[in-house]
Automatic annotation (TrEMBL), chain B:
Molecular function per GO: ATP binding; ATP hydrolysis activity; copper ion binding; P-type divalent copper transporter activity
GO CC list: plasma membrane
Residues in HMA domain copies: 2-67
Protein known as: Copper-translocating P-type ATPase
Topology within the bilayer: Multi-pass membrane protein
Family designation: Belongs to the cation transport ATPase (P-type) (TC 3.A.3) family. Type IB subfamily.
Keyword Membrane in annotation: yes
One Pfam family linked to the record: E1-E2_ATPase
Main location: membrane
Source organism phylogeny: Bacteria, Candidatus Roizmaniibacteriota
Organism (species): Candidatus Roizmanbacteria bacterium CG22_combo_CG10-13_8_21_14_all_34_12
TM stretches of this protein: 93-112, 118-136, 157-176, 188-207, 344-363, 369-391, 708-726, 732-752
Coiled-coil ranges per UniProt: none
Length: 117, 757
């Protein structure tokens, strides 16, 4: 009996894990000029629509002491920047290409996306 | 006049500009204050620099915020933060491993028999484990919880789930042993598992943080090269000022042994300058009036005054730092796979751990619950996504850093990656393989008797005769503006010869020049030019040996004089001067080294077939593309690419830019034009072609490191996760293996520093 219960809960937990991590809703915002990004266990918002050909200021505020998040990398814009804990770090970008560009922490564990339209 | 520029935050209208300007003008010492709404910046003009806090206060008084950039403070902040972090980690590691050791002593079969009874007490173990779990593991919990809120799982999630399960189970066993005994399970807590795992994971973090600091050292070294002050001559007075206050146009005095503060041009004096720190070139280079000097390089012997041309962010060093920073921010294509895998990795490991628990519970041996739990904890702990995430970036950081130290500037990680695959290198000839400036290479005297004698001393040695010839030819060519003429004049200047007066100078386009050399009462008619000119003056050049020189790719200038020994108006050939664009010393060596490692070398030039082949032969280049017009260089690169070759193009001129851009790897010579540097992925700051070989070697070494890192990171996870699922490794060993895997990846990247390139 206990084995059936364990099997049942095991399957449910696996399905829940899948749903929880892989089927989440993405938090998209439209940015004009300046956008504040909270760095705390990830990036909030993690999907940002920015205008093409205009300078957008991304203000990262790191609240998370996890060293994984201490650097932010915008590889398509060739930017790797250290984010000082509990401070705001400004990064200005002026996209010259349209499309979707990933940004991530220094180790590539946490991801966000810039959508240039 | 001193100028300070800074940003003002909070401005949105024209009146803000007015208010700020007014506030800034009230600061004592400010002569002019200009605020620009479009870029949100203010510029102050003053005689002496205004203190920062005065500016901040003035702007604050009208309700805005002055953002005075100070890069130093950011570095300071990072340093302080890192130091605090390391100190914090160190204490936590020591405490948790010590407490963990006490618990192990009191609970591990065999050694527990010798332990004091207190250590064997479950309640005592509970207290120690709680300290480790809640105090040392606090940051892990915080990080895991905040990521879970974003529905993201990372390294911390795995560690937290694994140790929490062991910790909670142990608490339950400690306080409700009867429950387990009724189920015929031995009431044995696993506080040692949770504590030691946390201790080892934190130890891994500590070592990782220390090692990681070493990967970014190159930039710090480059920034450290910068001089702090400059001795500027203003109003005829020499004053020492901070390097930030130097403006373009300032005259700066540099004494022996001093660092050159900013980039500029020597206007007085000469010296030998060690530029190795910026260009990687080990030999000091001699610099004279009119030569450019680079900021942050070391003045060796002489004292000189130079005019600052580039300051602040425009200096070569600042540009180099920016390029290296950008390269380290870019991603190598090889990283893409690791990125995709690591974004799915952790949730999959969690699912595998659940599967492991269920599997062992259903089919495992007794006690099933404990076996299943310990094995699933081992799966969670042993998985190491960090090693995968660190594999590529750490190697790229070290690789680009080493490059910069050797004068190889890599613009992006992609170029560094592609360079190792290059099997064909196309070199532009002029300015790249050759110096780009024609030089006199041979002087052949045909009729020594006709050389104007008055320039010779008493001894008619060969050397003196050559000097006399050079004086004669250079004196006339000095009046022409032809590049071939310049080469002759330069040669005479190098030999420190004093030129003579010339009368009746005439330039015959496409043929050469004529003129009379005057010396006291003598007057010698000289003609100097190509075959056509000689034909016009009926001078026989038969058997003069010019064909041989021409075959070697040299341009021959014939020199004839009116023969005083003959009564007729007849000119006779006196000498031949061969002029050629000389090959750089490093070119031959570089080509040889490239051929040796199996890379096909190609030379591309607009020169005629004969000249091009001659130079190609000299250098050991088999494939020579001659008579290629600049617009076609790009097409030639594409042709090689169509044949399936991976092509690197090395060039320096504006006309090379399209070819540099289209090549798989564009390598620009640092002495080249900005357009070429802009188009290329890699720039060689020194003019040394050996750096092309070094670039390939560096790329190969970096890729080797990355591949080994990735192999290790993947193999580690692919092998050890199934091993943990099978129950062949205990959770504590798993945590040790995990800590070791990240460190080994970083250490491997740091080993790249020892690579010989």
């Amino acid at each position: 009996m206990d084995k059936i219960i364990v099997l049942f809960f095991g399957i449910v937990s696996i399905i829940f894990t899948y749903w929880f991590f892989f089927m989440k809703k993405i938090n998209t915002v439209q940015a004009e000029g300046t956008v504040n990004i909270l760095v705390d266990g990830g990036y909030k918002p993690d999907q940002i629509v920015i205008p093409f050909g205009k300078t957008t200021k991304l203000v990262f505020e790191r609240k998370d002491s996890n060293t994984c998040l201490e650097e932010v990398v915008l590889s398509d814009f060739k930017i790797r920047k250290f984010l000082v804990l509990n401070e705001k770090t400004e990064i200005e970008i002026n996209p010259t290409k349209k499309g979707e560009f990933d940004f991530s922490c220094g180790m590539g564990m946490f991801h966000g996306k810039l959508i240039v339209k | 006049m001193n100028k300070q520029t800074f940003a003002i935050k909070g401005m949105h209208c024209a009146s803000c500009v007015y208010i700020n300007e007014k506030a800034l003008k009230t600061i004592p010492g400010v002569i002019e204050a200009v605020v620009n709404l479009t870029n949100g910046k203010a510029t102050l003009s003053s005689d002496a620099p205004i203190e920062e806090n005065k500016i901040i206060d003035a702007v604050k008084s009208v309700g805005y915020q002055a953002m005075i950039e100070n890069d130093g403070t950011l570095d300071e902040k990072i340093k302080i933060e890192k130091k605090r972090e390391l100190k914090d980690l160190k204490i936590k590691v020591v405490v948790s491993l010590f407490l963990g050791a006490l618990i192990v002593w009191g609970s591990f079969p065999g050694i527990m028999d010798f332990a004091p009874s207190l250590f064997k007490n479950f309640y005592f173990q509970f207290v120690l484990a709680t300290i480790v779990q809640l105090w040392a593991g606090r940051d892990l919990y915080r990080a895991a919880i905040s990521s879970l809120r974003h529905r993201i799982a990372n390294m911390d999630t795995l560690v937290v789930i694994g140790t929490t399960v062991a910790f909670l189970y142990s608490i339950f066993v400690t306080f409700f042993p009867k429950f387990f005994m009724d189920l015929k399970i031995e009431a044995m807590p696993y506080f040692d598992v949770s504590t030691v795992i946390l201790g080892l994971i934190l130890l891994g973090r500590f070592l990782e943080a220390q090692a990681k600091a070493g990967t970014g050292e190159a930039i710090k070294k480059l920034i450290g090269l910068q001089a702090k002050t400059a001795r500027v001559i203003r109003n005829n007075k020499e004053i020492d000022i901070s390097i930030d206050e130097v403006v373009a146009g300032d005259l700066i005095r540099v004494r022996p042994g001093e660092k050159i503060p900013v980039d500029g041009i020597i206007i007085e004096g000469e010296s030998a300058i060690d530029e190795s720190m910026v260009t990687g070139e080990s030999m000091p280079s001699s610099k004279y009036k009119g030569d450019t000097v680079i900021g942050a390089t070391m003045n060796k012997s002489g004292s000189f005054v130079y005019k600052a041309t580039k300051v602040g962010k425009d200096t070569l060093l600042a540009q180099i730092i920016k390029l290296v920073e950008e390269a380290q921010g870019s991603k190598a294509p090889i990283q893409r796979l690791a990125d995709i895998i690591s974004s799915y990795f952790v949730p999959i490991v969690i699912m595998l751990a659940i599967g492991t628990f269920v599997g062992w519970y259903l089919f495992g041996s007794n006690p099933v619950f404990i076996n299943a739990m310990l094995r699933s904890i081992a799966v969670l702990i042993i998985a190491c996504p960090c090693a995968m995430g660190l594999a590529t970036p750490t190697a790229i950081m070290v690789g680009t850093g080493i490059g910069a130290q050797h004068g190889i500037l890599i613009k992006d990680a992609e170029s560094l990656e592609t360079a190792h695959k290059v099997n064909t290198i196309i070199f532009d000839k002029t300015g790249t393989l050759t110096k780009g400036k024609p030089e006199v290479t041979d002087i052949i005297l045909i009729n020594k008797n006709l050389i104007p004698k008055f320039f010779i001393g008493k001894q008619k040695t060969e050397k003196n005769l050559v000097s006399a010839l050079l004086i004669t030819t250079a004196s006339i060519e000095k009046l022409s503006e032809h590049p071939l003429g310049e080469a002759i004049v330069k040669k005479a200047e190098e030999e420190k010869l004093v030129l003579s007066e010339v009368e009746g100078f005439k330039s015959l386009t496409g043929k050469g020049v004529t003129g009379n050399i005057k010396y006291q009462k003598s007057n010698i008619k000289v003609i100097l030019g190509n075959k056509k000119l000689m034909e016009n003056f009926d001078v026989s050049i038969h058997q003069s040996g010019h064909e041989k020189l021409e075959k070697e790719g040299k341009t021959v200038v014939f020199m004839a004089v009116k023969n005083l020994f003959l009564t007729t108006n007849h000119y006779s050939l006196v000498a031949l001067l061969a002029i050629a664009d000389t090959i750089k010393e490093s070119a031959k060596e570089a080509i040889l080294a490239l051929n040796k490692i199996g890379i096909e070398t190609v030379m591309i030039t607009g020169d005629n077939e004969a000249t091009a082949t001659a130079i190609g032969k000299k250098l050991g280049i088999k494939t020579v593309l001659a008579e290629v017009i600049p617009q076609d260089k790009e097409r030639e690169v594409k042709k090689f690419q169509k044949e399936g070759k991976v092509v690197a193009m090395v060039g320096d001129g504006i006309n090379d830019a399209p070819a540099l851009a289209v090549a798989d790897v564009g390598i620009a010579m640092g002495s080249g034009t900005d357009v070429a540097i802009e188009a290329a992925g890699i720039t060689l700051v020194n003019k040394n072609l050996i750096s092309v070989v070094s670039t390939i070697k560096l790329s190969k070494q970096t890729m080797k490191t990355i591949k080994l890192n990735l192999f290790w990171a993947f193999a580690y996870n692919v092998i050890l996760i199934p091993v943990a699922m099978m129950g062949l490794i205990s959770p504590i060993l798993a945590s040790g293996a995990m800590a070791f895997s990240s460190i080994s990846v970083i250490t491997n990247s740091l080993l790249l520093k020892r690579a010989k390139i």
